[in-house]
Amino acid sequence: MILIIDFGSQFNQLIGRRVREHKVYCQIAGPDISLEQIKEMNPEGIILSGGPSSIYEKNSPKADIKILKLKIPILGICYGMQFMVHALGGRVAGTGRREYGFAELAVKEPDGLFKGIEKQTTQCWMSHGDSVEVLPKGFKATASTENTEFAAIANPAKNYYGVQFHPEVEHTPKGKIMLKNFLFNICKCKPSWTMQSFAQDAVDKIKNQVGDNQVILGLSGGVDSSVAAMLIYKAIGRKLTCIFVDNGLLRQDEAKQLKIRLKQHLDINIRFVNASRDFLKALDKVTDPEKKRKIIGRVFMDVFEAEAKKIKDVQFLAQGTLYPDIIESVSAFGGPTAVIKSHHNVGGLPKKMKLKLVEPLKYLFKDEVRLLGKELGLDEDLVWRQPFPGPGLAIRILGEVNSQRLKILRQADAVLLEEIREAGYYRKLWQSFAVLLPLKSVGVMGDQRTYENIISIRAVTSKDAMTADWAKLPHKLLGNISNRIINEVKGVNRVVYDISSKPPATIEWE
Ligand SMILES: Nc1ncnc2c1ncn2[C@@H]1O[C@H](COP(=O)(O)OP(=O)(O)OP(=O)(O)O)[C@@H](O)[C@H]1O
Ligand SMILES: O=c1[nH]c(=O)c2[nH+]cn([C@@H]3O[C@H](COP(=O)(O)O)[C@@H](O)[C@H]3O)c2[nH]1
Ligand SMILES: NC(=O)CC[C@H](N)C(=O)O
Ligand SMILES: [Mg+2]
């Protein structure tokens, strides 16, 4: 396995992905990971990620410099390389020669990271203000750009490599080869990590973690929690009880349909709990998005704890949390990445919890979970279900959430989904849904003045929800959706289309 030490780069999840694309398992840890922990993990190689800080600043994140004595190959990327240089006695400084975006990389020798890259120059993608000025002993420059003499460095005797640019982004076209060289030629990894081996590993880990205890799992009918349920069921069988919570924030007929479907496809203990009243009561008059999310996280937990009490020996709560849920929710390792929004299952959880978490998917991305689902034999329909957030319609009703507004949004959303499905767009889109705005506008219907609600259509394409683009839906389809919503949903007289990407917007509106 490869250990990635995260200094707060926006791209660290991408590094992980790239490593796994080469069928090598990896884990990401904060710079505060101890030497003992690293030894226990016994990685074949360590990748030090980039980060927003400058190494010569007093409080910049630093890993234990003893990792440089472990005789494990190291690849430092950007800040990661600067950390390594600084720790080994070289010099890093803000030279004023900043580089953002494309740069032409002149490779000195097709060896080490650059093995197989025959061409003398290739493109790379840069994002830095600091540069290496003096190399530590034993290092040489292996590539440079116009502004950066030490764009890539190596100490082959020790298997230490550093790059100032980012090999993990798509804009470095040969980045894949460089990472491959690091993994297979330098670290001598074997490409043996597959979804199958991941599943086996995950099952073993679950067994270890929970022992003879009972586990409850929040089952939403989405792909993540369904896959988590299958893994845990494999590990502990009937000691798993799934709990499906109707929080009153689900889409039209969803609770009913899910009940039927879940029973059909997953032969597992499932309890259905209707807690709509608790959720709606707690959300009464609340308009702030983060408050809504925290309230929902808390009520979910109240329900889970109450259910746990009804079963003997429950100490664990399992969830289908994925890596992007965590990235956006927490300021990673107390450090540099910012909180974007509190996903109900991560940042929305209460600080003190009686139940311990089991989250077998927390290092995976959605497309990986879908592959895993397929591998485990999960029903096609479930594998390809569009994601639906736990806080449900509450974060798609801007402003107050009440039963009247829920009714409007449910109807509009049902029309939208029906049209999207009929037009053959459901699977092509990451998500497609309706949002109810906290505004009214004037219209004229049957010669009468109306003053009614506005629905926004949101449809996006994405690979992993970290970034997303608004979908270029055909005008005819948009027209049909708009017509039908205005005609069929009482209380709506205007429909708009959201044409913002993520970033700078997010997929959900709250
Ligand atoms: N209605 C619900 N009842 C029980 N647990 C839920 C419910 N909604 C969400 N959860 C829990 O919160 C986790 C995160 O929700 P999320 O929507 O991200 O995942 P999912 O529903 O499993 O999959 P998808 O992203 O495809 O909807 C779920 O995996 C599940 O454990
Ligand atoms: O289970 C969830 N609990 C949450 O609190 C939550 N918030 C956002 N999402 C889903 O995450 C993806 C990214 O959403 P954003 O671009 O809005 O951050 C999108 O797919 C969102 O639907 C959530 N899922
Ligand atoms: N992307 C990075 O890792 C940047 C490193 C450092 N902050 C610099 O500006 O050089
Ligand atoms: Mg969901």
TrEMBL record:
Pathway stated in the Swiss-Prot or TrEMBL entry: Purine metabolism; GMP biosynthesis; GMP from XMP (L-Gln route): step 1/1
UniProt binding sites for ATP: 220-226
One term under GO cellular component: cytosol
Keyword vocabulary terms for this entry: ATP-binding, Glutamine amidotransferase, GMP biosynthesis, Ligase, Nucleotide-binding, Purine biosynthesis
Active-site residues, Swiss-Prot/TrEMBL: 78 (nucleophile), 166, 168
Enzyme Commission number(s): 6.3.5.2
CDD domains: GATase1_GMP_Synthase (cd01742), GMP_synthase_C (cd01997)
GO molecular function terms listed in the Swiss-Prot or TrEMBL record: ATP binding; GMP synthase activity
Record-linked InterPro entries: Class_I_gatase-like, GATASE, GMP_synth_C, GMP_synth_GATase, GMP_synthase, GMPS_ATP_PPase_dom, NAD/GMP_synthase, Rossmann-like_a/b/a_fold
Reactions it catalyzes: XMP + L-glutamine + ATP + H2O = GMP + L-glutamate + AMP + diphosphate + 2 H(+)
All residue ranges annotated as the GMPS ATP-PPase domain in the record: 193-385
Keyword Nucleotide-binding tagged: yes
Quaternary structure annotation from Swiss-Prot or TrEMBL: Homodimer.
Role summary: Catalyzes the synthesis of GMP from XMP.
Full protein name: GMP synthase [glutamine-hydrolyzing]
Species whose genome carries this gene: Desulfonema limicola
